[in-house]
Amino acid sequence: MEGLLEMITTSGIAGYCIVGLAVVALGLIIDRVKSLFFDLSIKTDEFIAQVRSLLVSGQIEEAVTFSDANRKAPVAHIVKAIVERADRDEESIRKGMEISFSEILPKVTQRLGYLAMISNVVTLIGLLGTITGLIMAFEAVANADPAKKGELLASGISLAMNTTALGLTVAIPVMMIYSVLHAKQNKILNECVEQSSKIMDLLSGRVYVEKHSTSHEENKKAA
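User: That's the sequence. What structure does it adopt?
Assistant: Structure tokens below.
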């Protein structure tokens, strides 16, 4: 801990900028973990199995109610929009799915890109500190009083190395966490696309069967 504090103080303004961005990154990480792994998460297979069971048995209203109870989860929000239009044509159902997907997309993806940006920026700030430290070291060698040359040279090199180390200390874990969160985000979106397509296919088949049965009964009556 003392070594980290020394690294920050030795890095000067660049070090404090990196620490400030690290605090921002921590806040973003907490927000995205809470959202992606808890608020927007659901046991998708169990949820879809229950919805399919209700739809197959013709309990449309119950399926809507069940989806609405889990509407915080993106997949449930989309399924609800689809099931609500179960009595409409396929184009209307598809339009409802697209609208609901556009509604949940910002909630799933918001602010995550800032983590990648912070990781890149702290690396660049560390590089800037490295260049600044090397400039100080070269100026010390070229122009400083011989009695102070060693001290100034050591100070410049210390600034160069500490800012690089501090930048990488922040950038590497932030980028790793970003990768995990990005994978979770993609998993949620892929589940939305996959499961909504399956529900649409189920409803399309159901509508076809109902229309076919109705048409067959009308033909029998006419005969």
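Residues 207-220 have pLDDT under 50 and may be disordered.
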